[in-house]
Amino acid sequence: MTVGTEHRYIVRDDEILGGEPIIVGTRVPVRAIVELWRLGLNPEEIPTHLSHLTLAQVFDALSYYADHQTEIQQYIDRNQVPDDIVHPLARPDA
User: Which of 13, 44, 56, 85 is packed most tightly, with the most Cβ within 10 A?
Assistant: First the structure.
């Protein structure tokens, strides 16, 4: 079941990523937008990498993150690939 949030473009759906906050009509989690932003992409650049998203959706995801930083950080931490299984050439310090 899809449940809205206080943010227009952010919903939760128990059938998608276990209810993690996602962009409405997609399977893109808020954490994915936050991680791209943290990598240095400007919000305006993110829709060029995820062309099915609008700039409004990107900004709403970042707004959701600003209101729920602890929650989103927990999803980021939970989904991080452990260093010991990352191929050496894929590491940033390689």
Answer: 13
